[in-house]
Amino acid sequence: MLIGLHLGNGYGSQPGAWRMPGVDPKSYTSFDARVQQAQAAERGKFQFIFLPDGPGAVLADIATEAPAFNLDVMMTLAAVARETEYIGLVATGSTTFNEPFNLARQFKALDVMSHGRAGWNAITSSGEDVAANYGRRIPSSEDRYGRAHEFIELIQSLWGSWGKEAWIHDQESGQFAKRDEILPINLQGQYVGSRGPLYIPPSEQGQPIVFHAGGSPNAHDLAGRFANVVIGAAFTIEDAKAQREAFRASAVSHGRNADEIKYIPGLMTTIAKDRRTALDRRILLGGDLLIQRLGYLQQMLGIALNPAHIDEPLTIAQLEAARGSRYDPRSANALKIAKEGWSLRDILAHGVIDYHPVIVGPGEEAADHMQAWFEAGAADGFWISPDVNSDGIDAFVNEVVPILQQRGLFHQDYEGKTLRENLGAPEQYGIDPRI
Ligand SMILES: Cc1cc2nc3c(=O)[nH]c(=O)nc-3n(C[C@H](O)[C@H](O)[C@H](O)COP(=O)(O)O)c2cc1C
Q1: Are 136 and 285 contained in the same domain?
Q2: Assigned domain for 432 exists
Q3: Ligand 1 centre from 392 Cα, in Å?
Q4: CB of 123 sitting under 6 A from ligand 1
Q5: Closest ligand 1 atom, CA of 55?
Q6: 117 lies in the same domain as 255
Q7: How far is CA 371 from CA 264, 378, 407, in A?
Q8: Are 148 and 192 spatial neighbours (Cβ–Cβ below 8 Å)?
Q9: How many Å apart are CA 218 and CA 216, to the nearest integer?
Q10: Is residue 156 a contact partner of residue 430, using CB atoms and an 8 Å limit?
Q11: Number of domains making up the chain
């Protein structure tokens, strides 16, 4: 089983994380804090840390909320690379709002700096608020994905433009490199082009690993062609299974082995000694925001909910009338929790309106969830979003990882020092020869 850590803005996945007691409210700008968080994940043998990006932060209610993303993903990973030894370093880089030569250079430099631990999450960007940072609009899906295909092909060509054995650096003979093994690529497509070469020798893993995040048919096709890992989002085993199968089938249609692509859905965690303690932590974290979500819970359950009864369970009549919304895949879980007799506040504190499945309870519950999905063929691993990073990463490492290890589901130690070794990804240098 593969495990990644989501390092967004650094505070944690919950909007209230920056205000939690014990959290340094200024740690948004602290590279030391990011390093410590990555080191905590490395102690737990996580295969990688994952940094989403817009690029740049999308608009948040800055009066009360921290921006969702990191100051700068590449700078952060450079800092982390110097203070860690094994953990993979994966950053999101947009194929729409970058030039391939710039990204090729940055990611390969990171790969060399980290001795073969870099991964590039190649996404096309989809928000108009991101496009506005570049004075542009989001292009059509056809143009975004057309450019993405050319972009990745070109980046991999640049990565391979410095031949594997080209660097001689022989002081005696005075030969620095083999000129005929470091060649321009001279690629010009409809969207992007580059002469090259890129003057960076291979890292210990050759070149960075391509990740992708998304779930549309275009995403299946792009990832099936290029990616070794897909960062996904699914609320049910059935959905995750279907997603995983779609990516595997796409890989096969591109002449690859299905096992070369790993599907990794998200999991959010609030780990505590028991459910009540975990719920109380979520209530403290949620603050007023929790109650504001009552309106949304009404829609999910199809019944009226009265804020005056926030600390009472649903009545029998309400439960009989409740119907999970067909339009929200989270509704069935919300209804199940309501039927267990929790108060409205507690139902919300279970994270029933969050972006991924949420574990609010002891480590064993997280391990059970991960085991069930993994054994059902719904996931090759998970990317974990702790509620609050400052103690939530340690809670996962101390309370969940040992259970997974005891059950033989998660490795006891790193297989090697490169991301490729730790993901079990095949050797690759330059563009995939099967393309
Ligand atoms: C789990 C997950 C993570 C994602 N992370 C990012 C991200 O970091 N940055 C980004 O711009 N888009 C991200 N996306 C959005 C996708 O790249 C994609 O643009 C979106 O799903 C819309 O699909 P489409 O582009 O095929 O229309 C993510 C999507 C998913 C499902």
Answers
A1: no
A2: no
A3: 25
A4: yes
A5: 11
A6: yes
A7: 13, 10, 9
A8: no
A9: 5
A10: yes
A11: 2
Q: Judge if 231 and 124 occupy the same domain.
A: yes
Nearest ligand 1 atom, CA 121:
8
Which ligand 1 atom minimizes the distance to the CA of 141?
Answer: 27
Looking up residue 226, the CATH number of its domain turns out to be 3.20.20.30
Whether 194 lines ligand 1, by a CB cut-off of 6 Å, is no
123 alpha carbon – ligand 1 mean position (Å): 6
pLDDT at residue 289 is higher than 90? no
Q: Cβ(224) to ligand 1 under 6 A?
A: no
Of 361, 388, 414, the position where a domain reaches its end is 361
Distance 183 CA to ligand 1 centre (A): 34
Question: Is residue 305 one of the residues assigned to a domain?
Answer: yes
Both 23 and 65 in a single domain?
yes
Strand pairing class (48-51; 262-271)? unpaired
State which residues form the domain around 288: 275-361
| Probe residue for ligand 1, chosen from 74, 92, 103, 126 as the CB with the greatest number of ligand atoms within 8 Å | 126
Residue 435 counted as domain residue: no
Is 194 domain-assigned? yes
Look at the block and give the residue holding tokens 């050319």.
150
Ligand 1 neighbour 243 (Cβ under 6 A): no
Place of tokens 């975004």: 144
**Do 303 and 158 share a structural domain?**
no
Q: Coil, strand, or helix at residue 392?
A: helix
| 260 φ/ψ angles, rounded to the nearest 5 degrees | -75, -10
Residues 334 and 383 in one domain: no
Tokens 């574990």 appear where?
359
* Ligand 1 nearest-atom number relative to CA 69: 8
Judgement on whether residues 303 and 397 belong to the same structural domain of the protein: no
Is the overall model pTM greater than 0.80, yes or no? yes
Q: Is the CB of 124 within 6 Å of ligand 1?
A: yes
Tens of pLDDT along 101-150? 999 999 999 999 999 999 999 999 989 999 999 999 999 999 999 999 99
C-alpha to C-alpha distance for 60 and 242, rounded to whole angstroms? 32
CA 88 / ligand 1 centre spacing (Å): 20
- The answer on pLDDT for 55 being more than 90 is no
Residues 264 and 291 in one domain: no
| Averaged confidence pLDDT in the chain | 96
